[in-house]
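Structural biology now treats backbone shape like a language. To illustrate, our science desk offers a sequence and the tokens encoding its fold:
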Amino acid sequence: MLNKYYLRARLAPTALTAIPLVFLLDTLVMPSMQATLLAKSPYLPMLVKYGLITGLAFILVQLNRLVSKEVFQRLIFKDETHFPSTILMMWKDSSIDTHVKKILHNKVQAEFNIELLDAAHEAANDKTARSRIKSAVAALRNKFRDNKLLLQHNIEYGFFRNLMGGAVIAVGISIVLLIASYQKGDQGIVKMAWTFIGIYLFVITVCIYFIKRYARYYAKFLIEEYISSK
């Protein structure tokens, strides 16, 4: 059974960004195979078309996640040591009151045996400080893995992250569609390809904003839940 995260954060972005691929198959790939397939069976073109779409959709789900997580997430946040959840727990960030942050650090040490650096040592050892906080955040996420509200925030973040990866791939496919249709002299498809490129470039821009926004929402909620928990 497909879980909620897979359906909303991985499958939905794939459906929204697979349109150029389906259009490419329908207008350029399948017509070139139509005569050969019809000669064997009148049902074969439809079976091949939907078989290709299903198989490629599964590949795109994995590819979208790979591109978004391993490439663009790293470009935006460098790595997990620069996520909002890490930054919020650092002394140099003033988003959380100093007294509350001290309670948070003490609680992490008591419950998970992870000693987070004080302000002075953090300033002198930024890499070590971030690494320890990264471990603490991982422990917090595991503690609240069944929290429904946290899952919802994670879905929101995952949707836009994977949507951006899918949009980048969609732009690439649209460029292939543009070149192929231009060579065929089909101006209708050329215009459609340019439309796809414009739409998905806009989607990428929007996603960058929402990825940062929802990553911070997730981080704040995670920390607030932990501070208020027993």
